[in-house]
Amino acid sequence: xxxxxxxxxxxxxxxxxxxxxxxxxxxxxxxxxxxxxxxxxxxxxxxxxxxxxxxxxxxxxxxxxxxxxxxxxxxxxxxxxxxxxxxxxxxxxxxxxxxxxxxxxxxxxxxxxxxxxxxxxxxxxxxxxxxxxxxxxxxxxxxxxxxxxx
Length: 150
Known about the structure:
With 150 residues, the chain is an all-alpha fold.
């Protein structure tokens, strides 16, 4: 399916329109303040700021499944490019931007997962002492007077 047809199909659904309206009200169009020169835009700041913005505003689309997050990314990027910069992009250009967004999101989530695993391993190794009695690495219990005073 062509990307432009997918965007038209998604824009025809009411819940995506409501979500886009909420995101625009929360500052979706203000996440990037670059000038467009000769119809070209630097997409890396756009992608990074879009992912940060969607992470901050996750509460508005938390009821969506992870499969629809890509659709939200597509619509958000299209909203910024068409409404703010008034660019009409070809399917190839839109596909390139979306591929960059997907790759950036994949790298970001992968790094977060690796970080979480390393933290769990660290506490699991650290907690073999007498002070930690919990077997679940997600919850670390330490006997510290500072924690008891909180």
